[in-house]
Design a protein that fits this description.
By secondary structure, this protein is an alpha/beta fold. It has 10 helices and 10 strands. It has a 10-stranded mixed sheet, sandwiched between helices. Helix 2 (32-40) crosses helix 8, helix 4 (109-123) packs across helix 10 and helix 5 (140-156) packs across helix 6. The longest helix is centred in the C-terminal third of the chain and has 23 residues, at 307-329. The termini are far apart.
Length: 350
């Protein structure tokens, strides 16, 4: 097993796992993980209909949340405002661009509306939640293109690029960094920051195979991650994508905006989070890497009953609001947060 990566970014470690979080981890390890393991051994690709997003229509959102449909050029999205959150017409010049997770294969606006509404409330900013195109219908390059279109929509509404935070979870974390890079390369300006929750940032499975978390993840067996890499490459070929896709960990990073990365301490994607944080800070970019003790993949989505999730969303809200201070003072980096450890069970629930 490879040694622990020496980090240029010293992570914040949030100690403690509540009974609820341990029960969640146990249930995922004995349900979702075996299913993904079985999928990874199939000798063919299978793409079941995205039923989970249809069922998720029944999930409630944060009290008082309002949302409306936004039809972008190639995908459907939602403009969402939590209770008490104004948009640009109400004098709030800041917004969040959000990308849901789901391995580029599943989930959507319905599965993530609840999480997005809580992030909107914590950050006091409206959110454009993007229902980007996914595999097998379109390759990942088109998912990124939809994200760029969504950023352009926000610019068209009057939001300045330096007032837009780009966020996402899992595969959405990949899109958050990729879209930030793409809009900067187009000359549209630097976004306020990037927030990545349990992000997939490197399709090369080698780093994850040699990591201490290779077989500790509650949700993903390592073979499922490798299978996703193979599927993504086949979809690129199927759709005629010839140019190699550059993963976020391999992008030019020196001019990227400040970032926050959340990761559970046992996640297989810890390898990606550590590598990205290391490369960002080595490039001179502020990165707040937060490691959450024994928390599962995107545990923040369970904020209605998981205390650690509510604390984590509060941390995201504070980070995003801190980016507003950075923009107003004209500084180029955010202040390095005081390095600390937290006991999640003892912390005030936000």
């Amino acid at each position: 097993m490879a040694p622990h990566l020496t980090l240029a970014a010293q992570p914040q470690f949030f100690h403690g796992a509540s009974l609820q979080s341990r029960l969640l981890g146990f249930s995922l390890r004995h349900t979702v993980r075996p299913l993904l393991g079985a999928w990874s051994h199939l000798p063919f690709d299978i793409f079941p209909p995205n039923l989970v997003d249809h069922v998720a229509r029944l999930l409630p959102v944060h009290e008082g949340t309002m949302w409306r449909t936004v039809d972008l050029a190639d995908c459907r999205s939602e403009w969402l405002q939590a209770k008490g959150v104004a948009d640009i017409h109400g004098g709030n010049e800041h917004a969040i661009l959000y990308f849901h997770g789901g391995a580029f294969l599943t989930c959507g606006l319905n599965t993530h509306r609840r999480l997005v509404s809580r992030i909107s409330y914590a950050a006091k900013q409206p959110v454009l939640n993007v229902g980007y195109r996914q595999m097998p219908h379109q390759p990942i390059t088109e998912s990124i293109a939809d994200g760029v279109t969504a950023f352009g929509w926000l610019l068209g509404q009057g939001y300045a690029p330096q007032n837009i935070t780009i966020a996402g979870d899992s595969a959405g974390g990949y899109l958050a960094f990729s879209v930030a890079r793409a809009v900067m390369d187009k000359g549209w300006g630097q976004p306020a920051g990037v927030v990545a929750i349990s992000p997939l940032l490197d399709f090369d499975p080698a780093g994850k195979q040699g990591h201490r978390n290779a077989n500790r993840c509650h949700t993903f067996p390592l073979k499922a991650v490798a299978k996703l890499t193979d599927v993504a490459l086949r979809m690129d070929t199927h759709h005629g994508v010839t140019a190699p896709r550059v993963d976020p960990v391999n992008m030019p990073l020196a001019d990227m905006p400040p970032a926050m990365i959340h990761i559970g301490s046992h996640e297989v994607l810890m390898a990606d989070a550590e590598l990205m944080a290391n490369r960002l800070v080595s490039a001179g970019v502020a990165c707040d890497l937060q490691v959450w003790d024994r928390q599962v993949h995107v545990f923040q989505a369970a904020a209605s009953w998981l205390p650690e999730a509510r604390i984590a969303i509060g941390e995201i809200g504070a980070f995003v609001q801190g980016l507003m201070d950075r923009e107003s003072t004209g500084t180029t980096t955010v202040a390095e947060p005081a390095r600390r450890t937290h006991t999640a069970e003892a912390s005030a629930v936000r």
